[in-house]
Write a structure and sequence with these properties.
heterodimer, A: alpha/beta, four-stranded antiparallel β-sheet, 10 strands, globular, B: alpha/beta, Elongation Factor Tu (Ef-tu), domain 3, 4 domains, six-stranded mixed β-sheet, 17 helices
């Protein structure tokens, strides 16, 4: 008998591919949310693997808030072209033209308008019945209770008290018109798993994950990248600091962390030794004890 | 964080934790995460802040897992939460499930993918009805391994008597369940005793910690590796030249060139390639996701199943199942439901409820699942059950509009399970485990005549208490154990074991000696020298050793057993502290010189293709209980070392 043990990373890969294929087989019009971040990069690679030697049979969709780092947009356009995938970019144009900004209306409201409404608008406009997201259960407490196939009502909202039981590897894909399912194929991956996989598979990532000297404002330990949008508060100054982004969001709300990690191996070493979780630099999670849960109920990923 | 698990080698253990509201389940998980350094500073800070705000002295570890606002408000866990952690040995996925009465649905969900279940019992409250119910559900879902954590042992002053009483009571009960192995650990999740770190407060307990069990439990044999099953998920046709069937191998293995059958059509072909983006494979096995291409162009679509031609599942449209009801609306006999089984969704109606039991009032705790059900049938008021309510479990018959390709759930979780979907709400309202096909009337009558005769002796068996191992040990005045001698052929395993047996036997100890010669002519005469057969041979040897062990013998086994995984597999069959690995060390040169059976000569001459030491590896034990040196030490010295070890471990008297 041969050794039929496969490493846990290969097991996770296999589980994710299974999930992605189930969606492609059972839904009429699925889409894969593409945030350009590392988790999205893993998810896109898994989708490529799921349908090889065929192409990914659904488009990618990016919700652009207008606050994404220019390096991200550049990377997105190049990468999507390279893998031959269709890309849809959605924006909440109305909110953007109103000048929506976290410093004006607060982080929660800004997120609700630019991200959640942008996403819900995109899903509705294209009549998508399933949307893949790269969220992981280990990211945040309320996500730990999320299903892999997460039912959303016609308003895209999540009801944590009325979730469908999820047993074995059997996923319930049935919905009524207007309703949708959010699917999280890398639910069971941890941040470390994502990094290991990016390394093993040599998957390209946005360069701002790597450390370089950047102009930032130190705001309560979070390094906010400085540009004309950032208004300095009293006592704050612009500094040049060697830093990198541990997770990517919108520029006003994503802090960098001090780091010397210039390669993926450096990053892995850094994350292994880290004593803080990856979303520590994301302002959106800090507003209340259950801020992510509240956002998810509204329709956020 | 702790030093990371190698993602290329370490394997994965999925486990579920169950306990009632106040058993401290979330605290146990918090403790596991914290003591294995899988908690980040900022997460810990957040929990500390909450404690401060509420004016509590000790931090509440359960806050690390209770994720929803409603849970924090009520201080209880409502929904299944998934947590992850890793140690240098393994990666773990925890399905943390609430265990109170109304949440049976969650426990079933958590157990459905678990290799192991941790059941918590509050030392102050002892074995409760729900503790039994948790064990019963774990058994029903075929979770192979179980740890019973007797928690809050600090609140009963680390009392051995309290612990022993609970173990005895639960062991009596669990013996009737279908659980492969069960381990008891006295713990204090709050204080950290025996969770990750061995407690100094309980010198009377010499078993493993919870983490030790999680890291070492052998799960390789939990998977079905024999019966190849490949439900087709998706057909891939990028161009006219390629037509592949995408899916996940849910059991067994497959290689190019093998003859396969496609069900339900019955068409036959051969595997041409196993394609992946990382290159074609020579073999695919569970749980790999691959694409299979076939030699012939045949019509295959999602929902079909590719299997080996001579190893077929049942193809049925009338099935006999155990059903856990999960819908808020009660089950309706005759209503149209969808059944999703593997990648196939079919229309179905539940035609009959044969019996049910209410997990809330389960009181026949001395009954096995089967027995329990039989008892309930006899209760006349149970024969007219006509519905199942949320969280109730029963046995039912289901009629499908199209056949499904199934195996019994206890043989194969993946092809033996299904979910029930209500077409009105699209909600998942049931989880089913297949017992088999419903028999036709003729078959049923025939079978009933037979069962009358067949069941009689079984019933007699059940009514009498079986003789327990404890009783045997008391009568024989020694403990039982399995002593496993491993080492190269010619290292002197048999010589030492035979001498040891003589000494033990002469002092009145019940012994048994097992070696290759005893097994190969009878029990194992279908096996030869291939890798696969040798592993199977060790497995059977282990099972035989277990039977002797359970009947009160001190079992001496001498097998080359060259691979660690082989020995670990046997070790997993025997309770901790009753299995001793003895490494008989001797250099290969000396063994070749001794060559008592002329086997080395044959191997060197190429007559035996895979002979340990010559053209097949020997993996030395990493932490044997005793190392014997047959080259430089006398047999007396080696025997003394063995006897000393057995005395020290309390197996034989000093």
């Amino acid at each position: 008998m041969k050794n039929t043990n496969i490493s846990y990373l290969k097991q996770l890969e296999s589980e994710s591919i299974h999930i992605i294929r189930e969606v492609a087989a059972e839904f009429k019009n699925p889409v894969m949310l593409y945030s350009i971040g590392k988790d999205s990069s893993v998810m896109v690679r898994l989708a490529q693997k799921a349908f090889y030697p065929g192409k990914i049979p659904f488009p990618l969709m990016h919700i652009d808030t207008g606050f994404k780092f220019p390096e991200m947009i550049e990377f997105r356009d190049r990468y999507v072209k390279e893998i031959g995938c269709r890309l849809i970019v959605e924006k909440n144009d109305e909110a953007i033209s109103e000048g929506t900004h976290p410093q004006k209306i607060g982080v929660d409201k800004c997120c609700a308008k630019l991200k959640t409404q942008g996403l819900l608008g995109g899903i509705k406009r294209h009549k998508f019945d399933a949307a893949f997201g790269g969220a992981r259960r280990d990211e945040e407490k309320s996500r730990a209770k999320e299903r892999i196939f997460s039912f959303r009502d016609e308003f895209g909202q999540w009801d944590p008290k009325y979730q469908r039981p999820e047993l074995w590897n059997l996923y319930n894909c049935r919905i009524n018109e207007e309703e949708s399912i959010r699917v999280f194929p890398i639910s069971n991956w941890t941040e470390m798993d994502v990094w290991y996989y990016l390394r093993n598979e040599e998957i390209p990532i946005v360069p701002i994950y790597y450390a370089q000297e950047r102009e930032v404002v130190d705001r309560g330990g979070v390094l906010i990248p400085y540009d004309d949008m950032v208004k300095l508060k009293k006592g704050e100054k612009v500094e040049k600091i060697m830093c990198r982004f541990r997770s990517l969001g919108c520029s006003p709300c994503t802090g960098a962390v001090r780091s010397e990690a210039r390669t993926i191996d450096d990053i892995i070493k850094e994350v292994e030794e880290a004593s803080k979780s990856e979303r520590e630099n994301r302002v959106i999670d800090m507003t209340s004890d259950s801020s992510m849960e509240d956002k998810k109920k509204e329709g956020y990923f | 964080m702790d030093s990371p698990t190698s993602p290329d080698h370490a394997n994965l253990l999925r486990f579920t934790t169950v306990g009632s509201v106040d058993d401290g389940k979330s605290t146990l998980i918090g403790r596991l995460l914290m003591d294995t350094k899988n908690i980040y500073d900022d997460q810990l800070e957040a929990v500390k802040k909450v404690a401060k705000r509420k004016g509590e002295k000790e931090i509440d570890l359960s806050l690390l897992t209770d994720g929803l606002a409603a849970e924090r408000e009520q201080g209880i866990t409502i929904d299944v939460a998934y947590r992850y952690f890793q140690t240098p040995k393994r990666k773990f996925i925890i399905a943390d499930t609430p265990g109170h009465v109304q949440y049976t649905r969650n426990m079933v969900t958590g157990a459905s993918t678990a290799n192991l279940a941790i059941i918590l019992i509050d030392a102050r409250r002892g074995v409760l009805e729900q503790s039994r119910r948790h064990g019963f559900i774990a058994s029903l879902l075929q979770v192979s391994h179980m740890i019973v954590a007797v928690n809050k042992i600090d609140l009963v002053d680390y009392s051995q008597d309290v612990y022993n009483a609970i173990v005895e009571e639960y062991d009596e009960y669990s013996r009737k369940l279908d659980i492969k192995d069960i381990t008891y650990v006295p713990v204090s999740a709050l204080k950290g005793d025996n969770v990750v770190v061995k407690s100094e407060k309980m010198p009377w307990y010499d078993g493993p910690t919870v983490l030790h069990m999680l890291e070492n439990v052998h799960i390789g044999s939990d998977y079905n590796i024999r019966d190849f099953r490949f439900p087709v998920q998706y057909v891939i046709r990028p161009d006219l030249n390629f037509r592949g069937y995408a899916g996940r191998v849910v059991a067994g293995t497959v290689s190019p060139g093998e003859e396969i059958a496609v069900l339900p059509s019955g068409l036959v072909s051969k595997v041409k390639t196993i394609t992946t983006m990382d290159g074609d494979l020579e073999e695919a096995h569970a749980p790999q996701s691959v694409v299979i291409t076939l030699e012939d162009e045949i019509d295959i679509s999602r929902g079909d199943m590719i299997v080996r031609r001579h190893n077929l599942p049942q193809v049925e449209n009338n099935i006999d199942v155990i059903l856990c009801w999960m819908g808020n609306e009660p089950l309706e006999i005759g209503k149209n439901y969808f059944i999703k089984h593997t990648t196939r969704t079919v229309n179905a109606s539940i035609t009959k409820l044969i019996y049910m039991f209410d997990v809330n009032t389960l009181h026949r705790t001395d009954a096995t699942e089967h027995n329990l059900f039989c008892e309930l049938i006899k209760d006349t008021h149970h024969t007219d059950v006509n519905t199942l309510l949320l969280n109730e479990i029963g046995r039912a018959e289901i009629k499908l509009t199209q056949p499904i390709m199934l195996d019994q759930y206890n043989k194969n979780r993946e092809t033996g399970s299904f979910i029930v979907i209500d077409p009105d709400t699209n909600f998942t309202v049931g989880a089913g485990m297949i017992r088999g096909a419903v028999r036709s009337i003729e078959e049923t009558i025939h079978a009933e005549e037979k069962t009358d005769v067949e069941e009689l002796p079984i019933k007699v068996e059940i009514e009498r208490d079986p003789v327990s191992l404890k009783e045997r040990e008391e009568r024989y005045k020694h403990k039982t154990a399995v002593i496993w001698f491993t080492g190269l052929s010619g290292a002197g395993k048999s010589t030492i074991a035979k001498s040891l047996e003589r000494i033990l036997f002469n002092t009145g100890i019940h012994t048994a000696l097992l070696d290759w010669d005893k097994l190969r002519h009878g029990l194992c005469n279908d096996l030869n020298f291939s890798d696969q057969d040798r592993i199977e041979n060790t497995r059977r040897a282990g099972e035989v050793a277990r039977v002797f062990y359970e009947h009160g013998s001190l079992v001496l086994c001498t097998f080359v057993s060259p691979l660690r995984c082989q020995r670990d597999q046997v070790k997993a069959l025997i309770p901790d502290g009753r299995f001793f690995e003895v490494f008989v060390r001797c250099s290969l040169q000396t063994c070749i010189k001794r060559d008592p059976r002329g086997l080395y000569k044959k191997a060197i001459d190429g007559e035996i293709p895979q002979f340990t030491g010559i053209n097949s590896p020997y993996e030395e034990p990493l932490s044997p209980d005793v190392i014997l040196d047959s080259e430089h030490k006398s047999i007396e010295e080696n025997l003394k070392a063995l006897l000393d070890m057995l005395k020290k471990k309390g197996i034989i008297r000093k």
